[in-house]
Amino acid sequence: MSTTLVILQTDPATDPDAAGEGLRFAGAALAEGHDVRIHLLRGAAALAGRDAYPEQGELMEELMEADLAVSACGKALDGAGLADADLRPGIERGSMKALAGWAAASDTVLTF
């Protein structure tokens, strides 16, 4: 099984389609049997908020139920004013070190 890392970095407030496209790609890769991980970076970390961006958030939660792993950049979360208690269930506070590990272990890395 191949491992795919999707890095979402586009702020959904300015371009909601980019986040949606990245999430739909992740869903398609999961359906094809890939091990998929998403890291929320920069403005996309806002997607980690429990009540933020319902359309994309609901899709992300559905994908997490199908074994999608999701982390969000700790610095970006801090910048968005999101504490761990504010995050959607299942999203982990990540770091650049953890992202580097995910990237090294992945067969494919994509950014949206």
Automatic annotation (TrEMBL):
Q: Which Pfam families match?
A: DsrE (PF02635)
- Gene Ontology annotations for the cellular component aspect, listed alphabetically: cytosol
Keywords, in A-Z order? Transferase
Which GO molecular function, any one, fits this protein according to its record?
transferase activity
Q: Name the domain of life this protein comes from.
A: Bacteria
PANTHER family xref list: PROTEIN YCHN
Q: What is this protein called?
A: Sulfur relay (Sulfurtransferase) complex TusBCD TusD component, DsrE family
In which organism is this protein found?
Thiohalorhabdus denitrificans
Its taxonomic placement starts with:
Bacteria, Pseudomonadati, Pseudomonadota, Gammaproteobacteria, Thiohalorhabdales
